[in-house]
Amino acid sequence: MYRISQLAKKFGLSRSTLLYYDQEGLLSPSGRSDAGYRLYSEGDCERLAAIVSFRKAGLSIEETRALLASGEGEPSVIRRRLAAIGAEIRALKAQQHLLARMLSVQSGGELPESVDKETWVAMLRAAGMDDEAMETWHAEFERRAPQAHHSFLLSLGIPEQEAQVIREWSAAAATRLTEQPR
Q1: pTM for this one?
Q2: Are residues 86 and 113 in the same domain?
Q3: Any idea what DSSP says for residue 111?
Q4: Domain region containing 163
């Protein structure tokens, strides 16, 4: 039997993560010691290994719960996650292609000194990005490099107040994207 700290250490997790998994109904201790400590069995250890694997694959708590409840794994949950990852990869490749095109087309490989908001939006649309893809692009930019995102918006000639509004909805979009069931 493992105590909570021993099991957490074995998997490189925090104690609070195991408490959260218990709260969410993913992993409950098999028993308690005389002193009231949570005790986990080898079966619990195997279940935690599955949980860790599902989470590393990017599955949400809800999807992980569904997979654990089905016993052998619900293929549709895994297929949906695989499709979502494929869509994310395609979106990133489109962004990569767009940026490469922008660099090669403009000024011998460099962006011109004055790309304004309208030009930027037109280039994104020409590369096939719709409103949803642009929202995702802004959300990722804000999530990964908020100061660079702010500087970029200002470089397009966008006023400070409008840049702040864009950053606020970008941050909200980033939160929505990370909270969506995958």
Answers
A1: 0.50
A2: yes
A3: -
A4: 76-179
